[in-house]
């Protein structure tokens, strides 16, 4: 998997470096695969400031520092939830771009009731730019879904950077 996402990461790195901009990442159901893919690029510090794996409510509190009511009416693995996290990770890490993925990989029940195989990747950029993509694999294969969600999240970022 890292071979394929490494190619995506190289393209993203090139786009961000040309712009002189950086990204912060909130991995959800991807479990860190998005950040790991970006870190396969030598000199990643040029374009990647960090992020974290948001896999629990505690991680959400620590990484995003948002009031509880910010999530009112939202469910995990939804467009508005992922976009809120993309904005927060961007702002909290002082980056120009924020990428967040929230999904349900399967193998167990998602706390929000989201169906297995559903992921939302959101990008929050400069000047109010926002973009969200939903991926649905239709499957319950945890590892395959994690890989598909990571590729989709990276593609979402690459597409957003290309405008």
UniProtKB/TrEMBL annotation:
Residue intervals of the CinA C-terminal domain: 9-160
Residues forming coiled coils: none
Any one Pfam family match given in the protein's UniProt record, by short name: CinA
Organism name: Qipengyuania flava
Gene3D superfamilies: CinA-like
The protein's name in its UniProt record: Damage-inducible protein
InterPro entries with a match to the protein in the record: CinA-like_C, CinA_C
